[in-house]
Specification:
The complex is a heterodimer of chains A (115) and B (113).
Chain A: E1 4-7, E2 10-14, E3 19-25, E4 30-38, E5 45-51, E6 56-59, E7 62-67, E8 72-77, E9 86-94, E10 104-105, E11 109-114
Parallel strand pairs in A: 2-11
Antiparallel strand pairs in A: 1-3, 3-8, 4-5, 4-9, 6-7, 7-8, 9-10, 9-11
Chain B: E1 4-7, E2 10-13, E3 19-25, E4 31-37, E5 43-51, E6 54-57, E7 64-66, E8 76-78, E9 87-94, E10 103-104, E11 108-112
Parallel strand pairs in B: 2-11
Antiparallel strand pairs in B: 1-3, 3-8, 4-5, 4-9, 5-6, 7-8, 9-10, 9-11
The chains are: A mainly beta (115), B mainly beta (113).
Chain lengths: 115, 113
């Protein structure tokens, strides 16, 4: 099965700086890679996703890059703000199930924005 | 639309008791999922369903059962609660197209004592 590794486990950055979270996956059949933000006691919320036919996707201050050859993908947050503080999870899903398979999640990165 | 609704929000069980976690979605999604999240960890897939009458095991199915009699509902059953099942349980759904995002409910926080 799929295995997703996520680093770092904790990331502290100054407000206004950029943050980068990296994930690697093991199953070359994976073709869908979402990122979720989870605030304390809340549900995971999708912030951005990328499919394997795309190398990069951007949405305002958030961007995701995908390197299928190396089997890694990264989340980039620019101009960080206090409300960006949360736990971020990467995930991967293989294409074998026609899109029905569940997601395999990384263990999460606790992002702390220092004022 | 309410999206994905989970009940109850919190529950404390004694070892050996049984209970059903409820999940309902009003988005007419074919695919539904159950995950568990242990403290400081990512989510792990318990069971999933691609439509009414069809269910399949995920990564950690032992100790759980599911059923899918309607498109809207996907209950998760714990038959003999064990301390290892203390966790936060999230239900999610997505539509039937390939690589569509999963939408999560607010979760059920379950403690087994």
């Amino acid at each position: 099965g799929e295995n997703v590794e996520q680093h770092p486990s904790t990331l502290s950055v100054q407000e206004g700086d950029s943050a980068v979270i990296k994930c690697t996956y093991s199953d070359s059949a994976s073709n869908y890679f979402p990122w979720y933000k989870q605030e304390l006691g809340k549900r995971p919320q999708l912030i951005i996703d990328i499919r394997s036919n795309v190398g990069e996707k951007k949405d305002q201050r958030i961007a995701v890059t995908l390197n299928k050859t190396a089997k890694h993908f990264s989340l980039h947050i620019t101009e960080t703000q206090p409300e960006d503080s949360a736990v971020y999870f990467c995930a991967a899903r293989p294409s074998r199930g026609g899109g029905a398979d569940g997601l395999t999640f990384g263990k999460g990165t606790h992002l702390i924005i220092q004022p | 639309n309410a999206g994905v609704t989970q009940t109850p929000k919190f529950r404390i069980l004694k070892i050996g008791q049984s209970m059903t976690l409820q999940c309902a979605q009003d988005m007419n999604h074919n695919y539904m999922y159950w995950y568990r999240q242990d403290p400081g960890m990512g989510l792990k897939l318990i069971y999933y369903s691609v439509g009414a009458g069809i269910t399949d095991k995920g990564e950690v199915p032992n100790g759980y059962n599911v059923s899918r009699s309607t498109t809207e509902d996907f209950p998760l059953r714990l038959e003999l609660a064990a301390p290892s099942q203390t966790s936060v349980y999230f239900c999610a759904s997505s539509d039937g197209r390939v690589n569509q995002p999963q939408h999560f409910g607010d979760g059920t926080r379950l403690s087994i004592l």
